[in-house]
Design a protein that fits this description.
528 residues, mainly alpha, A middle domain of Talin 1, Helix Hairpins, 2 domains, 7 helices, elongated, HAMP_dom
């Protein structure tokens, strides 16, 4: 029951328990260590106090001797002078120091033994100091009386010297006890710390082992199942019943494997059925492809014949259309010829009148040319006279001579031009007479053409009607033949497409069959 409870705890709780155990062990270790350090500190304080008191005991012994030295100095001084004054001052200082040491020793109350020893020696100290104070004071007034009192002082000195070691022994015993106690406390603290640390490590190791075992063991089981799954084994089981994260993961894994087993079973059955169906479908597709191929061949033959018929009919249609176009063109040309002939007759008449007018104009031009020729001759004579006069004028007439010479040259060129124009006008007059005669002959020929054109137009009109009817019939035949060829072509195309589609279907069926075989092989890799 306890194991089941622990196994069902979440990983966070298990890890928290491990951390809590570590924190608890650390807390206990800290508490014990702090207590041990506190005790060690107390013992250390005792050792320090005992060391200080030991110093005070030594100082008290020194004051014991110093007071006697002060008494002897006062006696030797004779009760006067600086030596006596120094003895009085030193005694006062040493007396106060001695009394302070004893008071502090009682106030410290380190131990009953030490306090008892201090109390035991205190009367002797008081007697000793009182005797010293008395002798020094007496030495200032009566040195002889002070000398007589010295034996009593020496007795007090000896008594105190006998009792002071008892106080030193008590303090030494206390110091040794404090040191021993400090060592014992330190050893105990170290031992307790080691024990607690070992116990904490042991608890943490045990709890860590429990936590690790509760996590790593199930994870190894899950890993083993996953390794089997990687090799195609779907029959594995983790056998984990805990409800922590690892248990939930194992449950999810087993549920997934169960689903995969069901899916693989269904895929295996489906792949077998698919392989059988693809075999049947492949046989049917091969038959359909064969029939489609035969239909395609026959359709091709019929389509070729229909194309030939359509081509022939279209050729006849094109020929008749061309003939009709030729006849229409002839009729149009004949009509155009008739119109042109009429225009030619009119143009010939106009041309005759124009040519006659041209002859008259050429005569007028000849008269104008004669006038220009006469002016050019006169200008030439004037230029010649001007040249002669310029020569007579000498140097002053050189510029005028140049101008006269240029005028003469222009007159000569004008004369030449008028001669040329005269020759051309004579030629025009001669050509005009010939043109008038030719135009007369052309007008006669055009009249004959116009008469023959009527007969041609009537014959063309009849031929146009016949050709139009023939073109209509041939066009209808061409359209029908073309439609037949198109339909047969469509049938051939459809048959070819069917053949191609069946070829593609056969390839697809083969691919499906291959995939079914591959799928079956893939499923066969798994064990379920």
């Amino acid at each position: 029951m306890a194991r089941s409870f622990w196994s069902d705890r979440p990983l966070g709780v298990k890890l928290a328990a491990l951390v809590a155990a570590g924190a608890g062990a650390l807390g206990v270790f800290a508490v014990v260590t702090v207590g041990a350090l506190q005790d060690t500190g107390d013992r250390t304080d005792e050792v320090l106090a005992s060391a200080e008191l030991t110093g005070d005991v030594l100082l008290a012994d020194m004051m014991h001797d110093a007071v006697r030295a002060d008494v002897l100095q006062a006696l030797l001084s004779g009760g006067t002078g600086d030596l006596y004054s120094s003895a009085v001052a030193d005694l006062a200082e040493h007396d106060a120091t001695f009394r302070d040491i004893m008071a502090e020793a009682l106030a410290d109350d380190l131990s009953p033994e030490v306090t008892a020893s201090v109390r035991a020696v205190t009367p002797a100290v008081e007697d000793y100091l009182a005797s010293a104070d008395s002798i020094v004071a007496t030495a200032g007034a009566d040195p002889a009386a002070a000398g007589r009192a010295y034996p009593a002082f020496a007795t007090a000195f000896s008594a105190l010297e006998d009792e002071l070691p008892a106080m030193g022994d008590a303090v030494t015993a206390y110091a040794e006890a404090a040191a021993t106690s400090s060592r014992d406390e330190r050893s105990t603290a170290i031992t307790e710390a080691l024990v607690i640390a070992a116990a904490g490590v042991l608890v943490l190791a045990l709890l860590g082992w429990v936590v690790t075992r509760s996590v790593v063991g199930p994870l190894n089981q899950v890993r083993a199942v996953l390794a089997g799954l990687a090799e195609g084994d779907l029959r594995g089981s983790t056998d984990i019943t805990s409800h922590d994260e690892v248990g939930q993961m194992a449950a999810s894994l087993e549920a997934s494997m169960s689903n995969v087993r069901a899916v693989m079973t269904a895929i295996g059955d489906s792949s077998t059925t698919l392989a059988s169906a693809t075999e049947q479908l492949s046989a049917s597709a091969q038959d359909m492809a064969r029939l489609a191929g035969e239909s395609s061949v026959q359709s091709g033959i019929v389509a070729a014949a229909a194309d030939q018929v359509s081509t022939n009919v279209q050729t006849v249609s094109a020929g008749s259309e061309q003939m009709g176009a030729s006849i229409r063109e002839i009729a149009q040309n004949a009509s155009e010829v008739s119109r042109v002939a009429a225009q030619a007759v009119h143009a010939a008449d106009s041309t005759t009148a124009t040519v006659a007018k041209l002859g008259e104009s050429s005569v007028e031009i000849a008269g104008v040319v004669k006038v220009i020729t006469s002016i050019a001759e006169q200008t030439n004579l004037l230029a010649l006279n001007a040249t002669i006069e310029a020569a007579r004028a000498g140097e002053a007439g050189k510029g005028f001579a140049v101008v006269a010479n240029e005028v003469k040259e222009l007159a000569q060129e004008t004369a030449k031009a008028t001669q040329d124009i005269t020759a051309r006008v004579l030629a025009i007059q001669s050509d005009t007479e010939g043109a008038v005669q030719a135009i007369g002959e052309i007008s006669s020929i055009i009249g004959q053409i116009n008469d023959s054109q009527g007969t041609i137009a009537a014959a063309v009109e009849e031929q146009t009607a016949t050709t139009t009817e023939m073109n209509r019939n041939v066009a209808e035949a061409a359209v029908s033949a073309s439609r037949i060829a198109e339909n047969i072509g469509a049938v051939a195309t459809a048959t070819t497409s069917t053949t191609r589609a069946m070829t593609d279907a056969q390839a697809a069926i083969d691919e499906v069959a291959r995939m079914a075989t591959s799928l079956h092989s893939s499923v066969a890799r798994f064990r379920y």
